[in-house]
Structures are given as structure tokens and as C-alpha cells.
Specification:
2 copies of one chain form a homodimer. The first copy, chain A, is of the alpha+beta class. Chain A has 2 helices and 3 strands, in the order E-H-E-H-E. Chain A is elongated. Chains A and B meet through strand 1, helix 1, strand 2 and helix 2 of A and strand 1, helix 1, strand 2 and helix 2 of B.
């Protein structure tokens, strides 16, 4: 069993309206030092296999097919043995 | 200037319908080894100060007021010097 963590970020050139909205809220609350807020996804799951290569391939396939929009987002992942 | 990274996760006891939905998609595509998918947020921003303590306090305040729902979510952050 492996525990996988996938971080999904919008590419630098893609607008992030959610980040912009939160940052406007920040300005209204007086946080004037905050800039360039970008909001991505942090995904955790388990892969039920004992083989590292199998786990790695499943994480990449799962990410590319369901977790990440390949037109706008990049992802990175890490795997650690669990149990 | 500091670059801040904040990771927001739903607490273990809080349902994650988005994670469940993605995982159902995974099952339909034949990923049968994947389980317990949980989707959180990964937030990056810059804090325009040279003082570490100030940066830290701003990151915590910004997180607690705008990025995190304190009833359902926990967060962790990291700060690194930028420029």
C-alpha cells in the first residue's frame, strides 16, 4: 500500500479568478502585503499495491485522466509507503 | 519578500463529496487500487515584507480569515525567502 499526494497548479499564464477573489477580500481586510495568490488542489489517496512502479503508473494515469486538466494545469506527485 | 505555501485539508471526519465523485470516476475507468481520495487546496502567494515574524503572522491571519473554514478544515503552511 502506498500513500500518494498530488499537487495540481494552474500554469502561470492561466488566470486564477478564485485566487483573485480571495485576494480582493484580503485587501478589504487590510492585508496589503499579500500578492499573487494562486489556488490549486492538494489531493491525497491510497494505492493498494506493493510494487512501487505499479503505484507510480497508477498515480500518473489517475492524475492525467481525472485529477488534472492537461490544457491548463501541471501536477507533481509523491509516494510514500503506508502500513 | 517571502513566498508562502498553504495546504488546506478537510478534517478526517468531514465527508469529501468531491473526492468521492472523482474516485467513482476512477472505478469506472478501471482504477480499482485507488481508495480514500481526499481533495484539499494548495495555495501559493507572496508576502511583501522582509521580517519573518511579520510574514508568518500575515500568513496565519490570511489563512484563518479567508483561506480556511475553521469548522471543517485544518491548514499547514511553509515560508521561503524569495528574491
Amino acid at each position: 500500500m502506498y500513500k500518494a499526494t498530488v499537487i495540481v497548479k494552474k500554469r502561470a499564464k492561466i488566470l486564477d479568478p478564485q485566487g483573485k477573489a480571495v485576494e480582493q477580500g484580503a485587501k478589504l481586510l487590510g492585508f496589503n502585503d499579500i500578492s499573487k495568490t494562486r489556488i490549486g488542489k492538494y489531493i491525497e489517496f491510497f494505492v493498494n499495491t506493493t510494487d512501487f512502479e505499479t503505484a507510480k503508473n497508477e498515480v500518473i494515469a489517475y492524475s492525467e485522466k481525472l485529477l488534472v486538466n492537461p490544457n491548463m494545469e501541471d501536477f507533481e506527485y509523491s509516494l510514500e509507503k503506508a502500513e
